[in-house]
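re: ur question from earlier - yeah i can do the single chain one, its not a big deal. heres the input i used so u can compare w yours
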Amino acid sequence: MIGPDCKDCPVCQEELAKIAAEGGEIPIKTHCGHIIGKNCLRAWVKSWDGDGKPGSPTCPLCRAQLSLSLLYQDIESLPLVEQIELLPSEVQPIARDWVAYARSDEALDREVDAFLLEARQEDIYGCYGVELGDMLARLETRRLKFIEYQKALQTVLAGMQTD
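and the output i got, formated as tokens:
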């Protein structure tokens, strides 16, 4: 199993992209848990078909059966729930909780957006009123909660690396 700190495709050793626009190999996570560059995986599948091998292609690292739908879907365009389901099962509960918490205070999001859109230079760098102080306190609470989720995720990922 390739750990989350893996930065290169295990097949071609090219750097894996964190986002599609970044360049580099787009990482694809197979059902067996390996992370392989999309181009390498496509080439592997194409060579499988070209060699006339029976059955479905397998993972080039462990030979587990591949789901070809992984190669032809843009993961970023999937609904968030489906994206979370592609994560390792140990990480999914933390990701679900994190997303639910992030979506839990839409009123605060709207309030921050409105302030930033309407704020003048002196509003940002000058003294602020009770309303802004309250909004900043709620943002700090949210930031600290995200740090808790991040630490929980790091703990799970560290445990997965030692397994």
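Residues 78-163 form one domain. not sure if urs matches, ping me
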